[in-house]
Amino acid sequence: MGIARTAKIESVAKLAARIPDGASLALGGSFLHRGPFALVRELIRQQRRDLEIIKQSPGYDIDILCRAGAVRRARTGIVAMEGNFGLAPWYRRAIENGDVELEEHACATLTAGLRASAFGVPFMPCGGIHGSALAELNGWQKLPDPYGNAGETYVIPKIRPDFAIVLANEVTEQGDARVFGTSHWDRIMTRAADRVLVVAERQVATDTFRERPELTLVPHFMVEAAAVLPNAGWPGSCWPDYEVDYPAVEAYLGRDEAALADHLAAAPEAREEIAHV
Amino acid sequence: MGIARTAKIESVAKLAARIPDGASLALGGSFLHRGPFALVRELIRQQRRDLEIIKQSPGYDIDILCRAGAVRRARTGIVAMEGNFGLAPWYRRAIENGDVELEEHACATLTAGLRASAFGVPFMPCGGIHGSALAELNGWQKLPDPYGNAGETYVIPKIRPDFAIVLANEVTEQGDARVFGTSHWDRIMTRAADRVLVVAERQVATDTFRERPELTLVPHFMVEAAAVLPNAGWPGSCWPDYEVDYPAVEAYLGRDEAALADHLAAAPEAREEIAHV
Amino acid sequence: MSESWSPFAYIVTNLARFIRPHEVTFSGVNSSLPMLACLLARRAYDFDFTYINVAGGVDPIPSSVPISSSDPVLAEGSTAIFGNEDFYDLCTRGGMDLCFLGAAQVDGRGRTNVSAIGDWHHPKVRLPGGGGGAVMLPTAKRSVTWRTEHSRRTMVETLDFVTAAGGMHGVVTPIAVFVKQNDRLALASWHPESSLEEVRERTAFDFEAGQARPTESPTQREIEALAALDPERRFETDAAIVLRKEAV
Amino acid sequence: MSESWSPFAYIVTNLARFIRPHEVTFSGVNSSLPMLACLLARRAYDFDFTYINVAGGVDPIPSSVPISSSDPVLAEGSTAIFGNEDFYDLCTRGGMDLCFLGAAQVDGRGRTNVSAIGDWHHPKVRLPGGGGGAVMLPTAKRSVTWRTEHSRRTMVETLDFVTAAGGMHGVVTPIAVFVKQNDRLALASWHPESSLEEVRERTAFDFEAGQARPTESPTQREIEALAALDPERRFETDAAIVLRKEAV
């Protein structure tokens, strides 16, 4: 059922409160770019547990969630801090320790699973994969071409996240969301997930969207709720609004517990909460 | 191999000359809206034969091509003139007479076949279809879900048109193309076809595209050549540039041969040719 | 009252009555009457619903009502373009509540033929084809169709070809409204100027009619909404729908 | 001359030399050196090619060279956004000529491990994962990888895990360039300050070297292009690549 054109803007804290323990979350963006990081941190403040993270190329987001012990399972293609920071250290440790279960994908196989969900079918063919040990690891099946024109093709089972959570540049009061620059895998995530939440840099007049509706990534009827918070992708980038805050990423990577606490306290949504008190 | 950033703008006649007899053409737009109709008519003037037309909802385009005897095969979901004009009369006659072979699709099954081509896989699952006689008619196969989560799913074989031909509002000298309003199935057609040709209402400075690259439907490296001709979608619409010219459609539907000749003579690309002499 | 309820208005109004609050409702190509029904519902009913259409519009505010139900003006004022791939996917994944789908013949199970009259391979009449039907009818939560002619050749016992199966939730004709009941179409109501007997006479399939009664008259708001959408009765004139032929 | 050819510049330049006229060339995440190679080729070579990247850029004109190879600045000046779904599909349908793909271990067949050191289920080191590798390596026309360390633990006889198969067309390390020959990696050339013997010593898999010779020195234009891209040697410093460890 569609979600009517009611006002949908609420605080980041309320948005996070919609997500229960154990939920599977498709997170938008890639590595340090266009991630809905304010919401990710809010999940930590609300002590969410047993989350499943679905994202082709997570980094900071999955790392900080693993650091806080909020993750049960990861379904990912490539995980790194990127920049010059290399591996995502707390994620790495969580996998090595067995604290987090990993379903390792190629990025495109994860996309194929999301496409199956978006297209309403139980499986999705995906090119390549042949010779990769990921196929056996994940039990991916090869099917012959029933039309006899090609060899065997791998099919990936449907992946249906409970939530897609994306960072938009602009949102309307009704929840329409648009993104500038690349939208990574955000589009297919919003079509594959059961529920869609949006974090946006700013709210604009609905007429702004009416003037250029081609730019809308997610129409309002698919969006359950949205939060508006400038700098919500911090310490990552949100094109064209701001770039990566590398010193903040470096500070986050400090090994002592204070580094995490300081980092959480410095985040824009933490200031929002104080303002709301 | 990509097509470099050379100047790609040429006349409609030269664009049409790239298409050989017997080619399969995915035509953009839907019914009377955003069809690359100037190029369609030019194929008639150049006496092209044995074409295969691939389009979810053709109308005027397939009708005039059938009227001119240019079509061998149609792969379509729904065919009509629309508006108040009802069936496409010359298409209807060509099918009833057996002059044209029909592969009847649901629109979404044609899209599934194009997706298979675009995604580089031999077949594509498609929802629905169960109980439709189209499945048996086309020999579509049902596959069990190898993951045991769902019942049988129909898969549609790959459809790879020789050409995708779309009508854009704006094109750059290098062939980047953008569309305002709905782009119908143009995006997937350009990804599924072997070669892409663009007819555009106008050429704009490349910097215009750089300012809003999110609006680009087809990037230059995928486009082989483009023609620029205002009103190229006549007698159909091209949003937001012009609406359907219903009197012209009605005149086209005149039953005598003069109606077709007059219609072809009144077309914008006919005037272009005279100007080029 | 009933004499003012033209068969055209009867169909549009009864199609609109299938629209429910908060649902996602879709109208497609070749579908002027459902297009008008969606626009009527916006004006006449006190609830919100999502209206998406084949022109990519999502809750559009069209500046005029187009002759073609796929005209891009139907995306005017929309805050998004929700294109063909998008709305088909929405339907197949179970997110479409109500689809209006065309039909030339309907059978008692609510299946449709939009492909051919006569043998498909040697048709007497080649019809347009089912468009989205074969995919949408089995996957939308509810589908509704309409016929501007109610006769034994449109409301058939046996389809010439099964273009789409899965079962219509509702069918509206100039004289009747059918709603699915236990996987068969059942008569829900008849035009106040028609009768159960006439509907039976002009329908080739058997149907239940235990709940059936005359269709509720159009409300003032329904009448006004349609008058506002078609002030010069251009759509009504073009549609040229009659309650019954002079000589059946 | 060769002493000015740092291992950093050696890798970037030799990656760039795999780019051919008019081709579609792709660089992805975690790929600073291929990103620089693509930008170098634009400046140093007299041919046109299509450079697409993971930020959605198509022949972009970035205003600066970003630390992150997926930074959206890499789409600046682009006339289109060609996003993740689009470039993966382009690759699987056979439209990608040259892909730069990362690797932690490479074997003699050009297969890669980017998943784990040790047993996948109980890894000694959990690596990033292959990103596009398992899909792109078998479907791109040519793929090329790079290793900033050339040793028997990176150029291995047996991968700890086969993340992606299909065979690299080329591999560039601080001391060598390999190119596929009959489905095996063969040595094409070695760094002028290295030798065939050193490459053999530091490579765990067997390889042909019949055609191998010292790598052609960088041209003036290659040198100038890299200097323009990295004027303060920030990338070179960050990469911290050495020709050989002090004590191997």
TrEMBL record, chains A, B:
Q: Could you cite one Gene Ontology molecular function of this protein?
A: CoA-transferase activity
Extract the Pfam families matched here.
CoA_trans (PF01144)
Q: Tell me the first and last residues of the signal peptide.
A: none
Q: Which UniProt keywords apply?
A: Transferase
The regions listed as transmembrane in this protein's record are none
Q: What is this protein called?
A: CoA transferase
Species for this entry: Salinisphaera hydrothermalis (strain C41B8)
From TrEMBL, chains C, D:
Family matches, as Pfam families: CoA_trans (PF01144)
GO MF annotations in UniProt: CoA-transferase activity
Respond yes or no to whether keyword Transferase is given for this record: yes
The alphabetized UniProt keywords are: Transferase
List the SUPFAM superfamilies.
NagB/RpiA/CoA transferase-like
Q: Which domain of life is it from?
A: Bacteria
InterPro entries attached to this UniProt entry? CoA_trans_fam_I, NagB/RpiA_transferase-like
Gene3D superfamilies from the UniProt entry: Glutaconate Coenzyme A-transferase
What is this protein called in UniProt? Glutaconate CoA transferase subunit B
Q: Which organism is it from?
A: Salinisphaera hydrothermalis (strain C41B8)
